[in-house]
Design brief:
Blueprint: E1 11-16, E2 19-24, E3 32-33, E4 38-47, E5 50-56, E6 67-70, H1 77-89, E7 93-104, E8 109-118, E9 128-134, H2 147-156
InterPro entries: NUDIX_hydrolase-like_dom_sf, NUDIX_hydrolase_CS, NUDIX_hydrolase_dom, Nudix_N
Domain Nudix hydrolase: 36-156
Protein name: ADP-ribose pyrophosphatase YjhB, NUDIX family
């Protein structure tokens, strides 16, 4: 970001609140790009005892994750997680457990993660290329993004020791 979205003046890095921030160079404009993290919701979805892993369109063929998406204005994280399950899997789910809040620094996101149970047949939404259902004991967590939530889900089921 080079220019102020309010007045089109150049932005420069300044220390504000003890952090480097981009701020407008126009003395009559007080714009600061705070660069706060984006809230994301994630659901470790369980259908008939299996965990649903999904591959988004454009992802490599062996790259699967859990249902996730951006929190919408006016919804709680719980509502957002259930909306994502409906949109991506065509399932009505119910929240079984809150898994935690996870920082995903690489994408400047904060993730609210839930264990969601659902019944029915998975119907892929427009954003997904593929889904697979695995017994929980075959699921392996990954280190970044939603991976720590998957690890917590497995720990609570006695299927993981909590370490990487």
């Amino acid at each position: 970001m080079k220019y102020c979205p309010l007045c089109a003046s150049f932005l420069e890095e300044r220390i504000i609140d003890e952090r480097p921030r981009l701020a407008c160079t126009n003395p009559q404009c007080d714009y600061v790009h705070w660069n706060n993290p984006t809230p994301v919701v994630a659901a470790v979805v369980e259908v008939n005892g299996s965990v649903v892993l999904v591959r988004s369109k454009g992802w490599p063929e062996k790259f699967f994750g859990v249902v996730a998406g951006f929190l919408e204005a006016g919804e709680t994280p719980e509502q957002g997680a259930l909306r994502e399950v409906r949109e991506e899997l065509g399932l009505d789910g119910r929240i079984e457990d809150f898994l935690g809040i996870y920082s995903f620094f690489e994408k400047n996101q904060v993730i609210f993660a839930y264990h969601v149970k659902a019944d029915g047949q998975v119907k892929l939404g427009d954003e997904l290329a593929e889904a697979k259902l695995l017994p929980p004991e075959k699921v392996r967590p990954w280190d970044a993004g939603t991976g720590p939530a998957v690890r917590e889900f497995l720990v609570r089921r006695g299927l993981h020791n909590g370490r990487s």
